[in-house]
Amino acid sequence: MSSFINCFDAVSLVVDEYTKEVYPMWRINGEKQEQLSNICDCIDSIIEEFEGEGLEAEIDENSKSIGIKIKCPDITIYSNKHTLYDILNNSTSFSFSRINDDLMMLEITFPGIWEENL
Predict the structure, then answer these.
(1) pLDDT greater at residue 118 or residue 24
(2) How far apart are CA 12 and CA 50, in angstroms?
(3) I need a surface site. Which of 43, 88, 98, 100 has the fewest CB within 10 A?
(4) For the chain, how far is it from start to end, CA to CA, in angstroms?
(5) How far is CA 37 from CA 6, 8, 9, 24, 62, in A?
(6) How many CB atoms neighbour CB 81 within 10 A?
(7) Where do the domains of the chain lie?
(8) Cα torsion at 16, 18, 24, 25 (round to 10°)?
């Protein structure tokens, strides 16, 4: 994982860019941003555990949701006590897909962290 940007840094890049586009009508909710930071810490541990080979982050401009894509050779968990299970339970959606014979993609979507600036 050392050769990749960590999750929160990747997410912050797209969040900062999007926030510039929607400000002053929308602003970041600090509590939601902190929750996202905690989720990203967990995602970093998942990337390390499953030898992740990449991470991408994006914002859906219509729903303001935050998408995180993780590329890994394999992801196998044996218990609902695993960190990945908690991450998926905090998401609005997730999917697994095969990229090629050696890599799979986990796509996770989380609620946006913005609120209307009244």
Answers:
(1) 24
(2) 23
(3) 100
(4) 41
(5) 11, 6, 9, 23, 22
(6) 8
(7) 7-116
(8) -140
Looking at the predicted structure, is the pLDDT value of residue 1 above 90? Answer: no
Classify domain 7-116 at the CATH topology level: Heat Shock Protein 90 (3.30.565)
Structure tokens at 50: 């499953």
User: Would you list the DSSP string of 28-78?
Assistant: E-HHHHHHHHHHHHHHHHHHHHTT--EEEEEE-TTT--EEEEEEES-----
Instruction: Please check the confidence at residue 18 and state whether its pLDDT lies above 60.
Output: yes
> Tens digit of pLDDT for each residue in 28-83?
999 999 999 999 999 999 999 999 998 999 999 999 999 999 999 999 999 999 99
pLDDT attached to residue 17:
97
Whether the pTM exceeds 0.85: the reply is yes
